[in-house]
C-alpha cells in the first residue's frame, strides 16, 4: 500500500524533476523515490539499451533468430511416438 506525501518544491526544481523523470521514462513519484533511495546518484545507464550486457544479449538473440531452423512439427513427433508404441 502506498502512502501519499505532501512536499514543497520550488517551481524551477519541480520542472527539472519532471524533465528528468520523463527522460528516464518514469513517473515523478517513481523518479523521486529512486533518487531518494540512491542518495541522488544517477543510474549507470540512462536507458537499458545503453548497458553493454543488454547489447550482448540482443546480439545473441538476433544471431539465434537468423540461424534458427525449424524442426519437426509437434504433429509429426506425436505420430512417430504413437507408431513406435504399436510395434
Provide key terms for this protein.
87 residues; mainly alpha
Q: What does this molecule look like?
A:
The chain has helices at 11-23, 28-37, 52-66, 74-86. The protein has 87 residues and is mainly alpha-helical. The chain has one domain (11-86). The mean pLDDT is 88.
- Total strand count, please? 0
Shape: elongated
* Integer tally of domains: 1
Alpha plus pi helix count = 4
**Topology as a string of helices (H) and strands (E):** HHHH
- Our Rg estimate from Cα atoms comes to 26 Å
Taken as a percent bin, the fraction of beta residues is: under 5%
Output the structural class. mainly alpha
Helix content: 55-70%
Ends apart, CA distance between termini: 62 Å
How would you characterize the largest beta sheet?
Answer: none
Question: Topology, please?
Answer:
Layout: H1 11-23, H2 28-37, H3 52-66, H4 74-86
